[in-house]
């Protein structure tokens, strides 16, 4: 069930987990479950949960009833939390993770099964990230194409907002699962993100090892809702209440989604993040987006690095989607060109000095004027995901000889007396004239090796 409204203070799920042998006093974190993917080497995966203060917790990793490793810790006073960092493991599985709590004569055991090790990616943003596979082009074919991707595991976070930072998720719409037509196409803007799924599927085709995908997005939400208070303060974002403009239909209050849907994940070891957001800032704090977006990236990186005991890379890869064009009936100044520019911190390209280790999927050419969800929601998410995965291969995985971005201008020269503008590009450009009024530019690309 989708939980709406505010969650005040620290909120813990009240229902016991079906596969545990303990009461609610001893449990794993909400997202540690059967079928999950944990981050592979060179990082160590973090396993954590709650218990009785002072108790000893032993975490055991097993495969085929053979013990692979053991880690021992104690439940901390006041927070009642325990945490261990597993030794780095190569991709593969399945494994079983067992946690045993002992205190005096008390002995309680938790287990999660079918655990894989691979790369874990967090996917966040607003409605274009939240769109499901059932809403995109060729949905029927895409929903039937899951059999070969059972090592791509998916999880979807419930829509929850909170006034304070939560330590654990208040709800999970879709627990860790193998992909099926039902959970990928559950309904409009429900369950699993199409962009997230297609991105992970493309990565799996290249990497051939398990991929974990976490969808945490909410339609119609501005960046302020996904940002911590400290990052908004750093950009001088003024405090405001509800926003009444059309593109904003979800929560808009400062930090409420950061508090409830991102911060509870910060102990997790991640490979990287992909992000699709900005439409709701086209006419709201638009001129601050060149600060709020790069600052969000920096803040998320620092928070996940610290929360995972240094296991998530301090500069983990962060990919995002450039906003597409759409048909605005209000006026020609829809704010999108400015947001696209601000998405790159006003550099016009990424990575750059303010946004290191980032990559961008261009989407300006994907306007979908006939989309039943409005042209602001293009249905060609396959191209978006493919371009994101190319950026990830180049930036996150260091693949060489891979073209993942278009040509960048090296020199611009205005020859006013001749009525000419000379452009020098970083890649070879071929201009083809279609007729007296239209021309087309093509550029030479490197072949994949």
Automatic annotation (TrEMBL):
<keyword id="KW-0732">Signal</keyword>
<dbReference type="InterPro" id="IPR039329">
    <property type="entry name" value="SIAE"/>
</dbReference>
<dbReference type="InterPro" id="IPR036514">
    <property type="entry name" value="SGNH_hydro_sf"/>
</dbReference>
<keyword id="KW-0719">Serine esterase</keyword>
<keyword id="KW-0378">Hydrolase</keyword>
<feature type="signal peptide">
    <location>
        <begin position="1"/>
        <end position="22"/>
    </location>
</feature>
<dbReference type="GO" id="GO:0005764">
    <property type="term" value="C:lysosome"/>
</dbReference>
<keyword id="KW-0325">Glycoprotein</keyword>
<feature type="domain" description="Sialate O-acetylesterase">
    <location>
        <begin position="119"/>
        <end position="326"/>
    </location>
</feature>
<dbReference type="GO" id="GO:0005975">
    <property type="term" value="P:carbohydrate metabolic process"/>
</dbReference>
<dbReference type="Pfam" id="PF03629">
    <property type="entry name" value="SASA"/>
</dbReference>
<dbReference type="InterPro" id="IPR005181">
    <property type="entry name" value="SASA"/>
</dbReference>
<keyword id="KW-0458">Lysosome</keyword>
<dbReference type="GO" id="GO:0001681">
    <property type="term" value="F:sialate O-acetylesterase activity"/>
</dbReference>
<comment type="function">
    <text>Catalyzes the removal of O-acetyl ester groups from position 9 of the free diacetylated sialate N-acetyl-9-O-acetylneuraminate (Neu5,9Ac2) in the cytosol and of the diacetylated sialate residues of sialylglycoconjugates in the lysosomes. Together with the sialate-O-acetyltransferase they regulate the balance of acetylated sialoglycoconjugates, key players in various processes such as cell-cell interactions, host-pathogen recognition, and tumor antigenicity.</text>
</comment>
<protein>
    <recommendedName>
        <fullName>Sialate O-acetylesterase</fullName>
        <ecNumber>3.1.1.53</ecNumber>
    </recommendedName>
</protein>
